[in-house]
Amino acid sequence: MKQFIRYFGISILLFSCSGKKFSPEIPASVIAISQPKAVVLDALADSLQPEIISRKNLPGPRIIPIPQREGETIRYQDETGSTVLMTLSPPKTKELLVLSDPNGQALSDRTGKSFLLGEGGISQFKSYTTDDGLALDGVNCAILDRRGHLWFGTNGGGLSRYDGNNFTNFTNAHGLVNNTVRSIWEDKDGMLWIGTLSGLSLFDGHKFTNYTTSNGLPHQVIFDITEDNNGHIWMGTGGGGVVRFDREKFTAYTTADGLADDVVVAVGKDAKGRLYFGTNGGGFSIFDGSGFSNFNQTKGLAGDRVRSFGSDASGSMWIGTIGSGVSRFDGTSFQNFTIEDGLADNIVRSIQEDRSGNIWFGTEHGVSRFDGKNFISYTKDQGLSANAVLDIVMDDSGKLWFGTDGGGVSRFDGSSFTSFTVNQGLGANIVLSSLEDSKGNLWFGTFGGGVSKFDRQGFTTYSLDQGLAGDIVYSLMEDADGVIWIGTSGGLSQIDGKNITTFTSAQGILSTEIYSILQDQKGRVWLGGDLGLSLIEKNQITHFGPNQGLPGSVILSLQAEKDGSIWIGAVDGGLAHFDGKRILPITTVEGLVDNGVIQIKLDQQENLWIGTEHGLNLLTQTDKKELLRGELANFHKFTTDHGLPDNVILQVVPLKNGKVAVGTNLGIVYFDQPNHQGTGPAQLQNLEIFNSNTGFPVKDLTDGQFGMFEDQFGILWAGTGSNKTALVRFDYAALVRNQEAPKVFLKQIRINEEIVPWSTLSSESPMDQVAFEEISLLGKTLSDVERTRLQDRFKDLSYEQVSPFFQIPDGLELPYRHNHLNIDFGTNELAKPFLVEYQYFLEGYDEEWSPVLKKTSATFGNIQEGEYTFLVKARFTGPSEAEAGEWTEPIAFTFTVLPPWYRTWWAFVIYSLLLLSLIYPVHQHQRNLTIKKEQEKARERELQQAREIEKAYSKLEVAHENLKSTQAQLIQQEKLASLGQLTAGIAHEIKNPLNFVNNFSGLSLEFIDEIEEELDKMEASDAVENVRDLLTDVKTNLTKIKHHGGRADGIVKSMLMHSRGGSGAMEPADLNEVIKEYVNLSFHGMRANKNPINVEIQLELGESLPKIPLNSEDFSRVILNLTKNAFDAMREKVNQSGPDYKPKLTVRTRDLGEKILLEVEDNGPGVPDDIKDKLLMPFFTTKKGTEGTGLGLSITHDIIKAHRGTLEIKTEVGEWTVFHIELPKG
C-alpha cells in the first residue's frame, strides 16, 4: 500500500505496507459509549470564532492561458510580490494504440474512428514458455482433453501436456513419430491422434502407436485431423489429399475424386456432420459422405488459400485464409471480413468461439474478438506473448489459450482488468485522484505527473509546465459551470478549457496541500487540506479548524448531504458533521472504529460509509439520524475478522449494481450493500476479493479523494501504488467465472516416497509401454540390471491394471513393508490452481476429513493391514457461478495392505499347533507341580512366621523389612496405568492364557529335567546324544518363553492394578507435606537399592500454599514416579560423565493465582526431541532390557489429569529435564 497524505509535516510521506497491518478482534457492530457533543459556532468566544477573510483586499489568482506552442513565457507576481518569468509548453498528448495496416497506417471504420487495440491498456494475459516447462516456444496446435488438460503440439519440441501445475513433455524418445507436431485430435474414446511431418501417432495414455508410409499411410505430412460421426479419423496431408482411417485401413481422396486440391491444410466438421477440407490454393471442399462440393473465391470465399475452420452456435462455418481475411459461410453465402473491418491481420490461422458467443481469430498480427458487430484486437502491446497466433483453445473455466509462433502460450483471463501506465500516456504511474466530467472525459491526478485528461482515445497531461500549481494532484472536482478544480501540493488550480487559474495562500486559502474539494448545493466550494478546512464564497473565505470543533486538521475527505450539510473526515482526529451552525465531532468514543478517517461516502440509501486506518464503518440512515440528534448510535464495524483482506481502508465506492467496492492495502473487495434492518450487526454478503493473491493484477490502492470511482458505464477505475499496474480499469461484468466445479483426478501414487513405473513391475506389460512409463516418470529407460532390482524390490506388490495418461494402479495390493504411500492429486483448474482447496480422507486410517488445504498431495505412513479407500474432493474459491464454488463429489482410490508374515492366517495356525503340543507334558506334570507349590507355600508360611517373630525382637530388622516393603511399593506404583475398563478387560483375557503358558513352560522344563535324568541312566549312543541335543535346544527355548512370559505377567498385573485405579476421594491436602514425605521416601528407596548414587535434593516449596483437593494416595505415585525417573536418569549420567558430575534434584512449588505450580527438575542427560513426545505413551520406555514397563509416566499423566491438572515436559539435551505440573486450586 502507498498512502500519500500524512498528517505529520507540511508535505506528504509514504506509508509502508508493513507499517499498516492491524487486525483487532472486534465485533461487527459497536454501540457508542458516549453521546456526541456538538460545538455551536455562535456560542464560541470571539477568539475561537472561525477566521473570515474578505476577498476584496486579496490579490487575484494567477491566470495562465493554456500554451499552444513550445517556449511561451508569462510574467506574474508571486506571494511575495516579486515578478516571476515562467516558460511554458503545450500539454502532452499521447494517443492509445490503434490497429494499423502492414505499412503502419492507422485503420478506421466507416465513421472514421480508429480501431482501438484491446481496452486501450495492458490486458490480463499470462504467458508460458520453455522457462515454465513448455517443450518449445513455437506452438503449432492445441486441444483440451476430456480430463480438462491442455495439449500443445510444438514446432520441433514434441508434445506438451499442462495440468495446471506442471508441463509433461513427450518426444520421439517416448515413441512419438516426429517432434514437429502440426495437429492433435482427441477421439470419442479419449485417445489422442497426433499429426506430424513424418506421419501419424496414436497415444492411448500408455504408449505411442505410429503410422507412416511404411505401414500404409498414403502421405507422411499430416497437417490437420478430425473425426467423423462414424468414428473414422480424417487427415489433411501435405500433398496426398485427404486420408480416412477406419482403424484398419487407410483410404486416400485426391483431386481425382473431386477434392479441390491435394494439399489439405485444414480439416473441420459442421453441425450436420459434414466434413470441410481447406486447401492451399483451391479453396475448400465439403464432403457429405458421397462426394465433394468445392467453394473458392469465385463463389464468394475471401481467398483460395484456406488455413483454418471454426463453427459458431448458429451453425455457420468460419473459414480463415492466408492473406484474404476470414469468411462466414451459412451454407449458401459468404460474408467476408478483413483488416478494413477491424480484423487484426488478413492471415487467419485459427478460429475459436468462446462461451459468450464471441468468435476469436488467431492472426499473424495478434488475436481478434468479434462480438457480431465489431472487432477488438490484442497484440504484444496489450500483453500477448507474440503476435503470430497459430491456434486457440478454450479451457473448462472459459479462459482462452493462444499458441504462438515463438512466444509460447498466452492465457487470456478476460477483459475485466486492464492497466494503464505512463506507457499509455498517463502523467505518472501513481494515481491519487480521479473524476469523470460532464462530457464523459476522465481526469486522473497523479503523484508527480500533474493531471491527465483521458478522452478514451488518449491522454492529455497538464503539469507545472503548463502552469498547474503543483505536480502532485490529491483531489479533483468539476463545478456546476464545468470548471475542473485541482487540489495539488502547491495550491489550488482551475482548468476551464482555455486557462489554468491558480490560488495559493496569497488568495486566502488556508492550506496549499489540498486533499479534498467539494461544491455544496449553494455553489460554495469547500477545501480540505493539511491545516484544516476552507469555505470559498464569492466575497470571502472562512477557515475552520480544531478550535471550531473539528476533530483534526488534516482533512482527507468531504461528503455532502442532500440537506446541504457536510461530513468531514480528518485522518488525525476522526469524523465531523457540519450543518452551517454547529460542528459535531465523532471519534472512537462515540463508536467510530478508528480516528484515522481516510474516506467518507454516501450510498444510494443515504447510508454513510467511513473508511479508516483500522477498519470500515457503516452508519445506516437510521443510525445517522440518531447520531445527529445527539443520541447514542450504532456503528457497524468491518475488519479482516469479517472477511476484508486488510484493515487499512483507502477507498469506498457504492456501486450502481447494488454492491460496494472497497479499496485496501491488499486489493479491492466487492460485497453486497447490506440491507440492514433492526439493531443487530450488519453482515457482509457475497464478499469477493481481487488482488494478486487471488490472481488479479491489483494490490495496494492509493488514498486520494476519489482515487477509485465508477464511471457512467459501470467501470471501476482505481489508482494503485504499483508502477506495473498504475491505473486499473475493472469491468466487473466482464469477469470470467467458472461455471462448473473442478474435476478432481489422481496424478501419481508413490511407495515409500519412491516414484514407481508400474508397468515395469509386470512381466505382461508390453515393452514399449514399459519404456514409455520409465522415460515419463524417471526421465530415462532403465537398464536390465536396474529394471531387475526394481522388480525385486517390489516383487510382492500386485495390481490389476494401470490407468492411462496418469499411471494409477487399479486394485493395488501392497506387502506390509511397503505400507507408506504418497498420493498426488489435482484438478482441471488450469488458470488459477492456487485458488483450489482440497480435503482428503483415508477410510480405515483417518478419523475425520483433513483440514482444508491447498497442497496437492497426501502422505500416509505405517498403514496397518486391511483394505483402504482414499477419498479426495475439491472446491474453487475464485469467481464462480451457481454451484461451481461448492465442494465436488469425492473421487476414490482403493488399495489393500497385506499383513506381515507373523500376522498371517498360516502363522496363527502354527502358533496354535505349537501351543497344543505343550498340553500333553503339562498334563503329565500338573499334579507334581501342584504338590510342590503347596509344599513351598507351607514352607513360606513357616518362614514368614519366623520373620515376624524376629521383627518383634529387632528394631533394625524391622526398619530393614519396612524399607524392603517400601521398595516393593515403589516398583508396584510406577507400573500403574489408567487404561480404563477396556484395558482391564483385555488384561483379564490375556492373563488366563498367559498363566497357562507360564505354568506349562515351567512344567515342560521340569519334564525335560526328568527326561535328562532318564537319559543319564541309558547307555551312551549317537541316538541318545542327538536326543540330548534336541532337549537342550527345547530347554533353551522354554527358558526364554518362561522368562518373557513372566515379564508379560508383570505388565498385565500393572495394567490390572491401574485399571482398578485409586478409590480415595478428593480431600483438601497440604501439597508441600505430601512432597516432603514422598521425596524423602523415594530417596531412601534409591539409596537402599542396587547402584545407589549421591544426590543433592533441594526443596523450593512456596510458603503459605493453600490446601488443594488431592487424592493423596494416588498423588503420592506422581511424586514417587517422577523422582524415581529422575534418579534413574542421573544414575545414567553418572556412569557416562564420571566423578565431575554432581547429581541434583530440585522440587519446587509456587502459587500461580488460579493454579498451583509443581516442578520436578533434575540435571540429568535430558530427553531428545524424538523421544519427548512419546514419554507419556503407555509401554514406551527408554530403559534397557527389562528394567521398565513403560507405564510409570503414563500412570503419572493420568493421575494428574484426574486432578484436572496439566503436565508439560521441558528439557535441554545433556543439561536438564523439568516436569512442569499445574493443579487447580478448587
TrEMBL record:
It is an enzyme of class 2 (transferase). PROSITE patterns: HIS_KIN, PROKAR_LIPOPROTEIN. It comes from Algoriphagus aquaeductus. The chain crosses the membrane at residues 905-923. It comes from the Bacteria. Residues 926-976 form a coiled coil. It catalyses: ATP + protein L-histidine = ADP + protein N-phospho-L-histidine. GO terms for molecular function: phosphorelay sensor kinase activity. Gene3D superfamilies: 1.10.287.130, Histidine kinase-like ATPase, C-terminal domain, Immunoglobulins, YVTN repeat-like/Quinoprotein amine dehydrogenase. Keywords: Coiled coil, Membrane, Phosphoprotein, Transmembrane, Transmembrane helix. It holds the Pfam family HATPase_c. This is histidine kinase.
